[in-house]
Design goal:
The structure is a homodimer of 464-residue chains. Chain A has 464 residues and is α+β, with helices and mostly antiparallel strands. Chain A has two domains: 290 residues, 3-Layer(aba) Sandwich (Aminopeptidase), CATH 3.40.630; 123 residues, 2-Layer Sandwich (Alpha-Beta Plaits), CATH 3.30.70. Helix content of chain A is 35%, strand content 22%. In chain A, strands 1, 2, 3, 6, 7, 8, 15, 16 and 17 form a nine-stranded mixed sheet that branches. A four-stranded antiparallel sheet of chain A has the order 11-13-9-14, with helices on one face. In chain A, α1 packs across α4, α2 runs antiparallel to α4 and α4 crosses α15. At the A-B interface, β9, β10, α7, α8 and α11 of A face β9, β10, α7, α8 and α11 of B. β11 of chain A pairs antiparallel with β11 of chain B.
């Protein structure tokens, strides 16, 4: 239980200490924790140790724990009344190449003004995800320093392999299930605001089923003059299969594909309509104008509430310069399905494979190679934690926080549900123009400052 | 006009001089005339000079003439009564890599026995096309040495770029049209026998239209989570276009595609049925069992007398290891059509492009890149030269020579017709197991010896 006065005191402490908060962020940004490159393994360890040390200074029982890859930092605050939150973020960053496109050293953070006069922090990881991570840790610091304690029990699990596959985290969570599942709700800070004025919580994430197929016809590449017409061409077989996956109305044709897909509620539909999403601008930014999915549905619905089938890659035959009149032996494709709530990855994968197998000529064959599957995530819209977190955000930004979906998949949210039984609130302060994964990554100073303030309020709300 | 006695004398001269004929072939095979590799340009020149010198020794007015690439050897024998033939072959060879798969030095010819006890000449170019070329030149030599003259007027045009695109030959033929078009018929020695006992003349060659298409949807690669369903996926667009090119019955769907395609005559159909072609063995060699073309037609008809559409290459999106959930901006394909007699390459290309353009969504685009087009070639089956050449071949092999088609395209035959107005008789003594373009290329000693004898008889027949 916290009081409004307490919260105001903590917020004032945040404002007064902003420069020191920035200095701490800079210190972390200077550590080159590129997880995918083994040359930076020691830097990853340094980043984990730096964070664990900071958290110990705030009274957490914190350690950088070993995994087969980079360490996972786990920290637990003291026992407290009220809900127990488990915060997730990642301390690793993407590689920085092409380095020549950076205007400043990616690992020497600078505060500058962008072309609209906004203050921005420029460095690799400024937004994704060190800046976002520290909004939470600095909010904890402010509570601790201003009031002597946090308003509720806080644990943290901070990963160092999010940018390089993250395959060691689920086994780590399994191995430490009892300890981590003691929390009541997971908080993840790795997402965007709806716009610069409007905070949001992402409550719907699509799941993913990815499969690779390879079709083999002849036992060797053939000459199209000598064999063309007589020999089956796997490019043709593959193209016919891919074409068969979508109906002219944009729907996916797999039998049973939509069986477990529910229509969104009228309330949610109304809420999304209220977001003022500009379909033409969204598509126009990518040079497109015609939504490709199921006709008659809004783009937001297509993206957040409807499953899709996408051909992420396909290849067969000669694809170099010039021309080669070959009938290849093989053709292959990487195909993925984004799932929405209710759809079962195994069921969709089986339906897909059956659909493909039925279309393979009797003298040809197909092999499948799975590339992972995870169900969609939906946070119940009537949950108390969601409601309180929205209140906290709305209080900071002076307008109602919105509930959004996301067409993407954040596997850790699925792992929280599957392994720990926890719902996840995805709350972040990044913007679409943050250039994450690209040169000149930045985080708005406003994202950082008001992100810290937002967490101060959200923690208070959740504790209420 | 020749007499049977003359021909017998010339044949006896061939038999008696076989060892010297082989030595001359070996000398030519030792020259490393790899046309595609600029490092071997001087070797190509040496091969051309070697041949021109040989021909001058036989009384030809012969020279290696310059082109922007490798030389073309042109030679004319003395004026003679009777028809004037223009013989074509090529002196350049394919590269030899992978060298480690050769059992002997590719440029040091050896005569050895294969696993069936047949004598074979092993070297790069032994079959394709130096061995085949010399069957004709050695036949001319035998006529000259045994009788003092050739039985008809012979010209030769011997190319050095057949294995590297041959783009300099058509302009060379254009520039020397009057000189070359003085011939009555072209002879090409670059094809196979029907089987080891049966000589053949190829009278039908399919034409070719090759086009590359690139479909662009978004202006950049997109994330399939963020955009999947809303953004058009060019892989899907391309697959639907490719799928639309073939009907379920195996026919090509382009409007008008078969308009100019005639059914083969009952006589030809009967002749082809008499060839005893083993469809199951032909497809089985490639690991297949079901003909893919128009159902209800024989495989030989599909290959020789029916046009086809083949997807020689296609690619789009991520095709490396692992998985990337991308919606690519572009997808592309290399597509070719094999044409039969009567079909016009320009008309087919236009029909194809229209078909594609009609299937490009309004906010996407397509570009086309042509890769050449040539019509099919048919030698009139009632021509006197064809009849006489068949008689000559039949006389040598002791069984009727057959008339065959070929699913492939031999552009020079089209150029002879288009530029010089000449029909072409394709007569060769190679076998499908000659390993042309591959390590351990060989030419049967029997192909060489009886090839020379065959040309002795064919020249006599044509002169008759």
């Amino acid at each position: 239980m916290t009081t409004a006065n307490q919260t105001e005191a903590v917020l004032a402490h945040v404002d007064a200490g902003l420069n020191q908060s920035l200095e701490r962020l800079y210190a972390l940004l200077r550590i080159k924790s590129i997880s995918t490159d083994p040359a930076y393994a020691e830097e990853c360890r340094r980043a984990a140790d730096w964070i664990a040390n900071e958290l110990r200074g705030l009274g957490f029982d914190a350690a950088a724990r070993p995994t087969p890859g980079h360490p996972v930092v786990v920290a637990h605050g003291p026992e407290q009344a009220g809900p127990h939150v488990l915060f997730y973020a990642h301390y690793d960053v993407q590689p920085v190449d092409p380095l020549e496109l950076w205007h400043t050293d990616p690992f020497e953070p600078v505060l500058k003004s962008d072309d609209k006069g906004r203050k921005i922090i420029v460095a690799r990881g400024a937004s994704d995800d060190k800046g976002q991570m520290l909004t939470f840790i600095e909010a904890c610091r402010a509570w601790k320093e201003a009031t002597g304690s946090l308003p509720l029990r806080v644990s943290l699990m901070l990963e160092g392999e999010e940018e390089s596959g993250g395959k060691n985290l689920p086994p780590f969570m399994e191995a430490n299930r009892a300890e981590l599942a003691a929390a009541d709700i997971a908080l993840v800070c790795d997402t965007d605001m709806w716009d610069r004025q409007t905070p949001s919580i992402t409550t719907m994430l699509r799941g993913l089923v990815a499969d690779e197929i390879e079709i083999t016809c002849a036992n060797k590449d053939l000459h199209s003059g000598m064999f063309g017409n007589a020999a089956r061409n796997p490019n043709q077989v593959l193209a016919e299969i891919i074409a068969s996956l979508r109906a002219p109305d944009g729907s996916v044709t797999l039998p049973g594909f939509y069986d477990d897909v529910a229509e969104i509620s009228p309330e949610l539909k109304a809420q999304w309509q209220g977001l003022g999403f500009d379909e033409a601008a969204f598509l126009g930014e990518a040079g497109l104008s015609l939504p490709a999915g199921e006709q008659g549905r809004s783009v937001l619905e297509m993206l957040w509430a409807r499953p899709t089938c996408e051909i992420n890659g396909m290849s067969g035959g000669y694809t170099g310069d010039g021309f080669k009149t070959v009938i290849p032996a093989k053709a292959s494709a990487k195909i993925s399905f984004r799932l929405v709530s209710g759809m079962q990855p195994d069921k969709i994968r089986a339906a897909f494979r059956k659909h493909v197998e039925e279309r393979i000529p009797a003298d040809c064959s197909v092999t499948f190679h799975p590339h992972g599957g995870s169900p969609a995530i939906t946070v119940p819209s009537d949950g108390v934690h969601l409601r309180r977190a929205l209140e906290g955000l709305s209080g900071e930004w002076g307008k109602p926080a919105v509930v959004t979906g996301s067409g993407g998949s954040i596997p850790v949210a699925g792992d929280f549900k599957r392994i720990l039984g926890l719902d996840t609130l995805l709350i972040g302060f990044a913007h679409v123009d943050d250039q994450i994964h690209s040169p000149n990554e930045k985080y708005d100073l406003d994202s950082y400052h008001r992100g810290i303030r937002s967490w101060v309020r959200v923690l208070a709300s959740l504790a209420a």
